[in-house]
Amino acid sequence: MVYDIIFLNPFGFGYSGFSHGIAILSSILRNNGINVSIIDASSEKLNSKEVVLKVIEAKPKIIGITGFIQASSFNKEVSDGIKNALPEVVQLAGGAWAEYTSEYILRKTKIDYVVRGEADLMLADFIKAIIDNKSIFDVSGISYLDKEGNYIENPALEFPRHLDNLPFPAYDLFDMNYYILNVKPENYDFPLKKSLIKRIKKYSKDGI
């Protein structure tokens, strides 16, 4: 199968729990007819070179990279490796790793676009626009460097207010036995709790 997008869950991310973000986004994309897969370097214990080899084998149109700040070096190695081997692949970054350091990431890696905030309401249309070679430069929530190297930050995304409308995570794309058996509940406290509280305060007017 030719994948439109492959998400990368970087090595070392699993200590803080299962990646609900890319699991839910994967379900949203599949519901919109987009072929999606996940390389879960955390549960498979893959190093950056092994991830790049998997991407080369799959040859997706787009790669989406997530993670916390602890994965920065790993993600940079993956980004550089993919650019060297498959320069035509569009690279997206999101999650806590990218949201608050978007300009730095765009300048220090081969990432093409950073998606800031919750991508649930926009990612399917964004992916389809990339695949269909349509203009994406007015899409809310993205940051990128223009042809002159200037940093561009589009307006922020709207925070999803009707969470019951979101699909269940794509558990079938993950080795759930790994997360059930190896991730301890106490590890969910940091950094997930602080990140979620910060996002709720930032995007919700009523504090819900």
Task: Give a written overview of the molecule.
It is a single chain. The protein is of the alpha/beta class. It has a single domain, classed as Rossmann fold. The chain is 40% helix and 13% strand. The chain has nine helices and seven strands, in the order βαβααβαβααβαββαα. It has a seven-stranded mixed β-sheet, with helices on both faces. A hairpin with a 5-residue loop joins strand 6 and strand 7. Helix 3 runs parallel beside helix 4. The chain is globular. The chain starts with a strand and ends in a 5-residue tail after the last helix.
Q: Into how many domains do the coordinates divide?
A: 1
Q: How many individual β-strands?
A: 7
The gyration radius over C-alpha positions equals: 16 Å
Largest sheet: 7 strands, mixed
What structural class results from the helix and strand content?
alpha/beta
Order of helices and strands: EHEHHEHEHHEHEEHH
**CATH classification, class level:** Alpha Beta
Helix content: 25-40%
Mean pLDDT, all residues: 84
Low-confidence stretches: 188-193
Percent of residues in β-strands: 5-15%
Distance between the termini: 41 Å
CATH topology label: Rossmann fold
* Total DSSP helices: 9
Shape: globular
Which CATH architecture is right? 3-Layer(aba) Sandwich
Q: What name goes with the CATH superfamily? A: Cobalamin-binding domain
Strand order of the largest sheet: 2-1-3-4-5-6-7
